Amino acid sequence: YQRRVRATFWLNYIFFTHFERSYSTRPLILHRWGGLGNHRYQFGFSGDVFPTWQSLNFQPYFTATAANVGFMWSHDIGGHLEQPAPELYTRWVQFGIWSPVFRTHCTKSPDNDRRIWVFPFENFKIMRDAFELRSRMIPYIYTQARLAHDTGLALVHSLYYEWPEYNEAYAQNNHYLFGSDIMVAPITSPLDNVTQVAWKTIWIPPGKWIEWSSLQSFEGPLNVTRSYTLDEIPVFVKAGSIIPMLPVDKPLLGSAQNEYYTLHLNIFPSGTLSSTSTQLYEDNGNDNANYETKFAYTLINLIEDQTSLKLTVNPTQGTYDGMQPNRTFYIQLNGISPPDMIQSNGVNVPFVEDPNEFGWTYDSSYFSVTINLPQQYSKLNKLEIVIKKNKNCGFYDPLIRGIPRCFSRLESAMNILDNHFPDIYQEDYTAVSNANEYAETIGNNMNSIVGFESLVDTAITQVIALTGIPQSITKQVVTYLQNCYQ
């Protein structure tokens, strides 16, 4: 008998060490908080909470500050005790995919459900995309989990770990870092009833950051106030970051224990002379006996200059049981113009229409170059990709930044207005239609990007002049378009 040891702490110890002694796989328990020192037993269950905006607003702060004692929380996404409203559940899921453990759960009741397909279709689509993104992030999360094991710094931690000299790093309670390269500022308040956006003031830390969804770049430190629709999440990536992910078309269930046969490198070039790098960590997924000695790291470098980008995947260092010798690659570079030439280990990569073929394609709605390398590459050899600038247009055109969000909002605006036919006709808002079609043609003529902002301004003017729809709809659409760059 040990005096003053909490029963919960003792139970966590007993269950964890029993698992450790009895099985060759890694012990894992989900437990209640037993006091300081419980960080050694992985994940704590944060309690049975009511689904309210106040509960959601507290959880990012609660999660990030747990890193101060080496702890990681696992939440009942959506609350536990009652059925959450669709908007609240959607925002909770969006926070959940950027938290240490993504887990939905609720009390057993026919009136309380967390299956996303029982919610309205628009909410379902947004949550389904979030679920998929979380699964695709496994290579990044797993690498950061190993870093947490080696250093003691949790996957989710407060900004003051990196910028302790800035008061803003302490004041922003629901901003946090998700690993080394990503900052998240979840939306934890409801949409405005009329405009259908939520406003949030975000502190951008020092350095250059790129917003994931819009590709808008920010040079910190500064505060920005931005609007977000229900399908938008404030996620910012350090400029130059290389985010290892899984491709969208691969089976995602159980990914953490499977080999990454195809690796998707999602790259956010800085647009400046720079050299950045990341490391990919891999092991066999669940071996408790050898994870300290049998693992592999792959160093990945990105060098940017005024005429080209060079991506180097270096030979993998280390080995583990079951390690496959080869892999294929899918490489995505965001926020750049179509290149003049791409080479893979000195071999020209052709432009293709089918993204499943060997070659590269261009997504003008997101200004991204995607390079598909379906042949097997040995992990023991270096892979070098060189992307040459197109001489006829700027490689890093600053006008690109922010436009992907405008494209998305223009599509929403078109759907809203089209739903009011026959009270209004597309002829009444031709600029909205023309701007909405811009994404399909801009890749063929990047110089035409100069006129896009004025076209959006014309679209706003036409919407304001509409007389056949409620003023609330006018205000919603105008808010969408006026703030798509902000």
Strand count, sense and barrel status of the largest sheet are:
7 strands, antiparallel
Envelope shape: globular
Helix content: 25-40%
The number of distinct β-strands equals: 21
What is the end-to-end distance?
Answer: 61 Å
Cα-based radius of gyration, to the nearest Å: 24 Å
User: Please, how many helices?
Assistant: 10
Low-confidence stretches: none
β-strand amount: 15-25%
Give the oligomeric state: single chain
Structure description:
The protein is α+β, with helices and mostly antiparallel strands. Helix 3 runs parallel beside helix 4, helix 7 runs antiparallel to helix 10 and helix 9 runs antiparallel to helix 10. Strand 2, helix 2 and strand 3 form a beta-alpha-beta unit. The protein is built from ten helices and 21 strands. The protein is globular, with a radius of gyration of 24 Å. The protein starts with 6 loop residues before the first helix and ends with a helix. Strands 12, 13, 14, 15, 17, 18 and 21 form a seven-stranded antiparallel sheet that branches. The chain has a six-stranded antiparallel sheet with strand order 4-5-6-9-7-8, covered by helices on one side. Strands 10-11-16-20-19 form a five-stranded mixed sheet. 26% of the residues lie in helices and 25% in strands.
Record the SSE blueprint:
Layout: H1 7-22, E1 30-31, E2 43-45, H2 53-65, E3 72-74, H3 86-96, H4 121-136, H5 138-151, E4 156-157, H6 168-171, E5 176-178, E6 182-184, E7 198-211, E8 217-228, E9 235-238, E10 242-245, E11 262-267, E12 274-282, E13 295-304, E14 308-313, E15 317-319, E16 326-334, E17 341-344, E18 347-348, E19 359-363, E20 368-378, E21 383-388, H7 403-418, H8 430-441, H9 452-465, H10 471-482
Parallel strand pairs: 1-2, 2-3, 11-16
Antiparallel strand pairs: 4-5, 5-6, 6-9, 7-8, 7-9, 10-11, 12-13, 13-14, 13-15, 14-21, 16-20, 17-18, 17-21, 19-20
Helix pairs in contact: 3-4, 7-8, 7-10, 8-9, 9-10
